[in-house]
Write a structure and sequence with these properties.
heterodimer, A: disordered N terminus, B: 768 residues, two-stranded antiparallel sheet, 29 helices, disordered C terminus
Chain lengths: 758, 768
Amino acid sequence: MPWWPGDEAVRGRWPVVLAMAASALLASGLTACGNSPYPPGAAEANTLYTAFTERSPRHLDPVASYWNQDTPYTHSIYEPLLAYHYLKRPYTLIPRLALAVPEPVFKDAQGRTLGADAPDARVAESVYEIDIRPGVRFQPHPAFARDAQGRFRYHGPHAEKLADEPSAPLDFPHLGTRELVADDFVLAFQRHATPRLPAPISGLLAEHVVGMADYLATIRAEDARLRAGLPPDRPDLPWLDFRKWPLAGVTAPDRHTLRIRVKGRYPAFRYWLATTFVAPVPWEVEAFHAEPGRAQRGLTLDRWPVGTGPYMLATFEQDRRHVLVRNPNFRHETFPCEGMPGDVERGLLADCGRPLPFIDRIEFRIEREASTLKTKFLQGWLDAPEIERTDRGSDYALDMRDDDATRARLSERGLQLPEADDLVIWYLGFNMLDPVVGRGDTPERQRRNRALRQAIAIALDWGEYSRVFPAKGGREAMGPLPAGIAGSRQGTREGVNPVTHRWVDDPNEPGGGRAVRRSLDEARALLREAGYPDGRDSQSGQPLVLHYDFYRAMTPELRAEIAWLTGRFAALGLTLDLRATDNNQFQDKVRKGRHQLYFAGWGADYPDAENFLFLLHGPNGKSRGDGENLSNYADDGYDALFRRIQLMGDGPARQALIDQAVALLQRETPWAWGYISAGRAAWQPWVRNAGVPVLAKDQLRYLRLDTAQRARLLADWNAPRWQVPLALAVLIGVCVAWAWRRQWRRRAAASARGVGRS
Amino acid sequence: MTLHLSQGMLVFLLRRLRDAALVLVGVHVLSFVLFFGINTPDDMARLALGGKRVSAEQVENWKRERGYDRPLFWHADEHGVRALTQTIFWQRSAGLLRLDFGRADSESGGDIGREVARRMAVSVQLALPLFVLQGLASLLIALALVAVRGSALERWGGALTLLMLSVSSLFYIVAGQALFSHLLRLAPVSGWADGWASWRFLALPLGLALLTRLAGDVRLYRAMLLEEAGKPHVRAARARGLGEPAVLGRHVLRNAAVPVLTSAGLVLPQVFLGSLVFESFFGLPGLGAYAIEAIAAQDFAIVRTMVLLGAVLYVAAMLLVDLALLWALLAAGLLAGWRLRRDPSQRRAWRRVLATPGASAALVVLTLLGALAMVDSVHFRRALPVPAGAPPVYATQTESLLDLLLARPLSMRESGYSRPLDAWTLTRESVVRDGEVVREPQRLVHGGAHLQDPARDRAADLAWRALAGALIGLGGSLGVCVVLLRQRPDRLRGPAREAAITLTVLAMLAGVVIAWAEGWHVLGTDRIGQDVLVQALKSVRTAFVIGLLASLATVPPALALGLLAGWYRGAVDAAVQGLGAVLSAIPNVLLIAAGVLLAQAVIDAHPDAFASALERADAKLLLLCLILGLGGWAGLCRLVRAETLRLREQDFIRAARGSGLSDARIVWRHLAPNVAHLVLIQAALDLSMLVLYEAVLTYVGVGVDPAVQSFGGMINLARSELLREPVVWWSVAAAFVVMVVLVLALNVLADAIRQAFDPRAAVGGSRP
């Protein structure tokens, strides 16, 4: 037994030796301890650290990428033709890869040019002639690399066969670049016809771009031909070279001119030009990815985007870590010198005229638990919790409100919590196909059901909801349109919903006042009108039970919210029965029209009323047409109004139509309304030029870091405290060891005596 | 001779390998059926594609690309073999045989095989040190305790391990993160780095995981060592004058090595997959986290792989242990000779249970909590006023008797958080004071509302109420004791005295709480102003229901199958063993998750079968218990089978058989009563484990319906509450205290039962 020495002298000493060794080891370990999740020197590097919470971006291919969590990557790597001004509000389009914001030229069916005020019926096409910025180069990428003879190294007939091909494009031994040309945009439009990826706006493009519908059919047929005889689940597919099949509506008359033909009038089209859906894609990259074996190894545009933007993707570890690094080929672009009043005071224009981007590297790491995300941000190890989210700051703002010590600490630290109106509406909707809360089949039924919906809309006090759940709520929605977009009257006196609110004048301030929610008594009166006095059917006496079809399985976190909602219904004497299922089953119920009450949200694609009003457009009904109108609201008058709004350019006439449409919705109450999220981001004090990424998602290029300040503050905030616990541990250890030794001695002596006696 | 032995060895090995393969096939089929019972390929496509603007064509594309456009088991349009092969099942199974795990179902998922290999590296870095350290540390501590056996130190050590065993692992994690990362800033709160830098991220989870499991293993090893220390050869060694260190080291430890190693080997796969909660909490990109994420995302391709992987690990560990056991066969034969005869008298055993220190106190606590659960289980709906002669109409709200008892605190609904015994809200509201907007806490509507100036009168009011309540409680308890004493004056000794003291303390405590609850929120209020005390009390029922029903659900299948297997042996035995092996091979959490999701899908598909959300929640709770029970019968079944195998060779059974009794009669009348003690011991141990398990399952998202109040729900909420400022600690503290009291009482009682009925059995707890 080498570990149990029999020698008396050593036996007496071994615990001491062991304890000393252990404490020495512990001490050396503790001095190296600290709560930094990064290697040394991380704070001084010009790197922005942030997190992502669920999973890696679903899609980075410009055709498919439609999720908010994709945007930090897509908007830093790809660049569309247009963009939103970083500082100016309301949102203003600025040229990015285009030389100017294009104005369409209207043509009639014979191709004759029309004036801007031509009647809608005569306009057959709007033609956009866009000048592309010259001298823009793509990021370094192996697809552009050529050998000494000028042939492509890694694709085509002369492709080199690497024994061990890198899994990341930037790790290839040879990289190259090329100038951006108009054909890259043509390919970008053509690619939306692909059947190989989900293309969420292909339907929209087919509806509006000349020749796109036919093009979709052509490409489908060609793809089927290419894939004939191949197993359907093969990731490596023959190259679908869109250049072989021209698209009538999108052409490149010369190297730097792009021509897009849009059917009829469609003013919102320019907003789509500011999305990454139409970011340029070089054909070389497509050819590179189509080489056999590359897709199998994950070398696709969906994972490794290629663009002209300020950053390029260097590392992509699925669900773990992504790293963006500065694109060395990025053109000269400078920080804007114009902003809103007050931006100078807030230091937002201090970098005016300086070249972009400022930051060298951006590191995203997974942080799945909300609690660890918060801890790391408060410790300073994250420069922002999630840069693309608009709501991450409310949590901290709330803590500061409720706790003086926290307020003192966080404001002393200089935590930045900028606010901005978000363009997201969350609403509780009614399924209009439902016999109880829906439209109703007879006029009598329609009147009763409407009264019931209106009563519920009054009782659901979203202002109270926002007070109880301040981290989630926002402003009470008066209609479907959030403030800050063209056509919205949210937040003004004219915008008050007369069904749910009353305007109360402020006696002290002429013209001032506020909207006050109508009382529960008024709601009860409506309920009586609907035939449910005190929540019981006036004929059968049975209590009315409404079903709330919730879109996710219940978790303990949601319990409180559901309890609040149930309480609001109970105030009217109504019972709300929760049917929480996972999203699949919820979607299934909605597709079949079997839902009754539901909760949903919509974030703006672009800042225009049309993008919200279409949520209630009849042909867009979910259960009938698989659209986004989950309420299945259908009203001929509203649909006619919507179609006119869609075609019309901004102006008072359009505003009048929008007001009319909103008033109609307020009366019919297909939604019990809800709240418009209040945007509030969270940034550490050393991040400059930071705001709330509401619609302008390309903010990474504008951010600047004060790394010296960061290094100083992080060292200050996170000095390890190991002395007291160590002392405590040693003390307890010594006590236990001493007690044990005493007992052991006593026992050994007793058994020795026992043996002696026997 | 050598040739013969190695041949036997080979046959044994081959047979084991065949069994292992069968088990894996069984696991595969089961997981396939379970998963596609929940999800249609359409569901999976929509979930993977998700979000806005998904067209039917995209769904079809997705299914085609992943091979989900075929039928599940039988392709009616194809002929001959192709009808079987052109199915999802065949294609997927064939891929697995080639060890090609395929592509994840999610859009950005990528190749599963590569991901598994990468994640395996992470999991091993956590699991292997944990396995080694855990084994060493628990053996060392167990040895230290055995070395001083009989002393106060050992008793305290034993009590400490029992206490540690009664705390949910989630508490260790939450508290450990707050202490070591937030407060002491010694370790990163979560994250990962490749290479040597990983130790910084591993230290904290490793330490906490060690702490979580230490107690169970220490108790297990201590029991094994103690059994060994009581053996004649050890006594003989001591009698020869050998020193205590030599006795412990050379005789006890060396001989206990076989059972210790065996149990450690069986724990290996559990260590591996049991770290999944730790991986998830600490952001370690390992296999466990992968499995949890896949469950949440319903990525069947990944779940299937993980299930199989877990099963492979389990089967491999079983093989290893089997081989080790072969070598230990000789030793085992010797051990059997010294087996003690079981004590036939049940009465004496039960008396011994009560005589164990703490057992009667635990029984009193459990009786009271059980009564609480019973009162909360009586549900009713109130009748609504109707005009005379009309048929009766009932309210839609379901209430329980406990709700009536708690009517006062239930009605004391506030608007938001408030501290225990406070008169103001925790959050602040804007009010205009002297023309200026200030943010300040508001007076609560109910808590402390009876006082004019709570700042001044609160202390006096609380003290007065506490005194009155305590006195009433004391009086009541004394009254009960006096009545009992008058009948049997000699009773107030030993267990009875302990019970009386416990009752008195509890009665005084209850008196104080009731007196306070009249006007205050004793444990504060939650986010929407509900009383936390009410929630904690109502959670007791859930814990009891889960523990009792789930452990009851294990009994019939375990008893029946175990008896059958042991009695008939041969093919029946092989079938039962095979079924058990398949079930045990699937990682427990995954099996339960699949079962619960399936049950939910069925319930959700028939919304009209249940009148209210509460009934639906109750149905889900019942199903959860059933699944927990059905998933857990294999362990008990093995014990029953082994005992039956032993008993059937005993004289009284031989005699029964000789006298011509039917098989059924022998099994029912003679065998079943003789294995009953095993059932009792196992059920008592399971009970406490299941209560703790509920919290973990709720974290994974497959626990009880959140409409039902449960400890798991309270703890999971606490994760965010502990991080907000000001900290909301009362909710988690209430859950912690009530839960520890309940589980500790269960553990103490289970321990006493085990000691009394089966002093040899060294049944340790494995824990989630």
